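Researcher: Structure prediction, please.
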Amino acid sequence: MNNPTIKDKNRSLRPCEILEEEYEHVHGAPPEGEQAKQYAKYQDWFGEIVLLNEDELLGELQKWLTLTEATELATTKALPNELRYIKLAKWLKTADSGVATLGREEKLNLIRTVLAEKLKQDLPTTEPWMTNDPLRPYTRGLLKYHQKKPVKSPTGKEPPQLATAGLTMKWMQGPTYSSEKQQLLNRFLLEDTFVGYVERVDDRRLAKIFRLMYESGQTALCFSGGGIRSATFGMGILQGLVKVDLLDKFTYLSTVSGGGYLGSWLSAWIHNEGFQAVNEKLRQHAESPLEPEAIPVRHLRRYSNYLSPVLGLFSADSWTLGAIYLRNLLLLWLIILPLLAAFTALPWVIASLVELNMSNAPYWITAIVALGALSTIIGTGFVHAFRPRSEAVYKKEQQVESKRDQSAFLWFCLLPLALAIICWMLGWRWFEQLNPETSYFLMGLRESLKLNGPDGLDIFAWGGWVIMGGTTVAHFLGWAGSIPFQSQERKKEKKQWWKRLLEPVVVIFTGAFAGFLLLLTAKLLHTSYVHIADGIAYTCLAVPGYTISLLLAGYVFEGLMSVMTDDGEREWTARYSAWLLILASGWLVTMGLVLHGLNLANQLAGAIGISTTAGVGLGSGILTALLGQSSKTAGKEKDANKGAPSALSRLIPYLTLPVVAIIAAISLFILLSLLDMILIRWVISWIDINQYHLLKFNAGELACVNPIVPLSVMVGLTVAGGLLGWPINTNKFSLHALYRMRLIRAYLGASRPPGERQPDPFTGFDETDNIYMGCMRPPNSYARTISEKDINRKVPFHIINIALNLVAGKNLAWQERKAESFTVSPLHGGALYLGYRRTFLEDNKGCPDPDEDDCYYGGKKGITLGTAMTISGAAASPNQGYHSSPVIGFLMTLFNVRLGWWLGNPGPAGDKTFHKSSPTLTIKPILDEMTGNTDDVNPYVYLSDGGHFENLGLYEMVLRRNRVIVVSDAGCDGTCTLEDLGNAIRKIRIDLGISIDFPLGFDIYARTFVTSEPKKYLAIGRIRYSEGPCGIPARSGTKAKRSKSNAGITNIEEDSPLTFAETDGILLYIKPAFYGQEPRDIFNYASVQKAFPHESTGDQFFSESQFESYRALGMYVMECIKTDLKKDFNLSPVDFFNKAKWGDCIRALNKKIKKINSPSNLAKPF
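Model: Predicted structure follows.
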């Protein structure tokens, strides 16, 4: 598929734009004239500079504005975070040299004028330092494709302007940048650079749309994750909502994971038959005396074992699951195993180089030492050039971060130093074997060191001084090369004479000391364990030993220079040291496992048997892959009075999986090493059959082969993996398709009208069960007959919640969550901080236009409901948001336990990929998945279960300022730790600035919890919109703000912090529980199944009694809620959704709060 033409209708959208489009879709667009005025106002906002925190900004600028010459600002030493003030001061002085004498308002007006002028420039080119500030993902996406200047079309004319919501942009084809897109990038760069001082134009639009959404009285129904358990319990809730006439009151339907099964079934059913028909059929009006339920409900009962409808040893359904898994696993291994084996072949290449006979090749020894010296100069030069005290902080404004970030360090410092260490390792090994007749100088050097003497090595012989002199020169040259990067201020600084001499002297001394440590390490390796004949041990230990030598020399340098360094430099060098330690330990473990692993396995097999050893290795891998996708770790139990478990028993569950995973990883390395050994012998058989018969599976013997042999094996494996990765699709051959096809058959197939479904007679699948998301909006209904009321009905508007994995994301505040919210709806697909794309482009018939099929998000004709539903339930994924683990993710990828899905980036970084249903090349996504290298700046993003971010679907509904939100939380939570609720409240408060609390108390308990208090299934929460950012203002004559004085909880007023404000929201939180008072059929099932109603989410094979128990519990819960609301508040469920009775609901809730906190109740013992 060719790259799409980026136009207004398929460009990346920002959050304010998609919320405005959702609002217009649900509530209707304003008149055309009014809409045009609104867009014109947005365009005016875009060019305005509104300053925030003006006094603080002027105070920060004062220091720089008082300098006499603007040019002085370029050379004045400053902290990195002061650079924006320096730059702004320069701009102001350039515009008005007398700015320092201006009054307050005049200065502010000048700042506005100067910044507004900057919007007209090419800021990434003229002010590249701005690209180094912490940028929003959307800004980074725009910046990524800032490659070319705007170009004329072949006709010499600019492309036609396309009106957009808020800005008229000239979107150009390909990667070229239009002037309007440039202005958008400039605006975002300016806002991100001067964050806190320049108002974000999108914030104004968001404030307006939030107010409109709240005032419209929007409501939401959320179904949580929890697999088929959540879907089945939710069905009972859904039927209960119909009985109390609530289903037609919801504006939004928000689903996650298992709740998405049910939500997608409902949306597809409404799409196929119309809302009124669905609403009536869910009332359980009998279609037949013997079939009282609607056909779609009966269909779900038949497919309660949706993965394998027919279970049994000879069931084709069960064997099909195994066949699909084996096929996909084999195809994945054809890509992964050659690449992993190529990686483990590298130690064999290095070991063969160590054992290579170079006794008659002095020039090669000289060359390898020269390469090592050059690498040392480059690596040490980077250290001295880019320490925090160096010029990189103060002078080199262009691409500062790109020179000093971790990626640059790895490429230009660690890699050269690693190469230098390897060169020293090889050079020394070859030097030890040198033939006396080949080089007079090298032989004299060798003899002076007395390598064959009783002490093994004479470090302080003249040969030792020559080597130490060489390391000194290399270090000194690296330091001297960094001098041009030192700051002008530092060069001009007047120092005492001894301080001027200190650094070069220390550089010379530590260079010589590093040479001494390298010789000492060589002596230890030569005289102790690693003698000259043990090349394998030398290969494993030499690099870590020499790396530690450099590390110790660096420590001495830091100590001697401490009189001239600060905390920042010491932190930098500490991180540098950390990477050296990673290099040393990584080399030791990898080389040890690959080169010595088979010997270790043979010794273990001799002790416990071959079959046991093989079973432990293979079983560990399979066990890790299966346990890696198990349910989330529980928090603290509410019922804590049963005695504290021992420390060991608490620790074992946390250690079991990591230990098993490590055993599996070790086994994998050993098997890959064995594969390399087999291939090396096979290649030798083609070269010399006699040598093949003599060569045994012995690491020492295989290391003595010509390095060309293992090198050819490594190259061949890399090429094989690369070629096989070209045609094999990473998405198609994961477990996602298996999961999706069966979910579609069970849930979307159930929504089809009788007689329309025509499944394949052999497989039972009907591809037409699936629906494109873009078709799920009126007038696209497939229903043959539809009521007049349903023709333009656009609610409930379905939001499917997914997690966008950020395991390698740069936001340090998200290191625990490792994911962000991603949603798919009938209008858009994307993420709040990244951007969105449209899933629907309407033609005259209201259906996707086949001529514009490159413009949809997620596929040729857009993403489908089945795909979105399945991604939302992709719990078993190597990258799992805040459950991600490197080792476990590696093994889950290896064993193809992969339900997640790769899609094009919906942000600006995905301009070339957003329309694709999967990556073009398989290798990189697979490796990213395996190594946890998932983020939001790559052309493709990795999506998985919405519960990996937030499992209730509440986050997105609070974002949309829904006034009443009903949440059905059927996650696995047998101890009632409320992990999913706590996680949602926490992230909503952090990201959206809105708190949620439960001032009426929380009376939902675990099954085993004993209390005399009333036990309920509903908790009423307060969503504090009135106190959040963009707070909802009160209507005239009402109070929204609460008194700041602490009147005490015994005298609660209507504006107390404990009460609901009229502009708050209400959360109706429903959770399944078992108290023993439930109907007898539910009681019977719960008596047998002690975990009910929180049986494991891993159980996706529901029996008839299990299915009915959860469904019936949902209906019973709704009946109890209706009764409790009437008893406690004299309210019906419908009252919360009636705008005319909103004030009555608030007063009833506050009255109850006042009663709860009255002196008489507070005096009661707990």
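Model: The two ends are 68 Å apart (CA to CA).
Researcher: Thanks, that helps.
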